[in-house]
Amino acid sequence: MPRVVPRCAFWRRLSKIASSGMPALDQRPRLLLADDHPQTATLLRRLLLSEFDVLELVTDGRELISAAERLLPDVIVSDVTMPGLDGISAATQILRKNPEARVVFVTVHGDPVLVERGLSTGALGYVLKAAAGEDLIPAVRAALRGERHVSRTLQLSDED
Q: How far apart are CA 34 and CA 56, in angstroms?
């Protein structure tokens, strides 16, 4: 049976979203949050819940890998420094197994070398916790579109 191609713009967009891995129009994007500081995690979760469904909160890199494989979130929001396995190493493993995964780092570390290391994993966002109120939601939105977003206060090389 031949495949029917939608002709109206709405149905073309809906088909494009369905095939792109983006959440459906009537669904909120699903996030996985990783942070080992309970107070910070609570604040980040509250911020993210304004626009997204936070499926689970994990506190270390190994839990992050397991939850990412089990939940298949639309975006992973992860701290960089966590016990056991750090967020960058966890993201590297996640993206190696699933290159379509979308990762945004949220951290206190603004060292350019660490920013470059984080983004070199294939992560799409790097947000400083001090700027999370302004930058985290736009970073997650950008990741959903497959675009990169970095906190405005960070300086990156011209190659990025």
A: 8
CATH number belonging to domain 23-150: 3.40.50.2300
With beta carbons less than 8 A apart as the criterion, state whether 76 and 125 touch: no
Token pair, residue 95, equals 């993206």
Give the integer Cα–Cα distance in Å for 10 and 5.
12
Low-confidence ranges of the chain (pLDDT < 50): 1-20, 158-160
Length of the chain: 160
Q: How many helices (H) and strands (E) does the chain have?
A: 6, 6
**Residue 51 DSSP one-character state:** T
DSSP state of 54: E
pLDDT tens, 3-49? 444 444 444 444 444 444 555 556 899 999 999 999 999 999 999 99
Of residues 138, 131, 12, the one with CA closest to residue 75: 138
List beta partners, residue 27: none
Which parts of 27-111 fold into alpha helices (H)?
38-48, 61-71, 87-97
Q: Which run of H or of E encompasses 29? A: none
Domain boundaries, the chain: 23-150
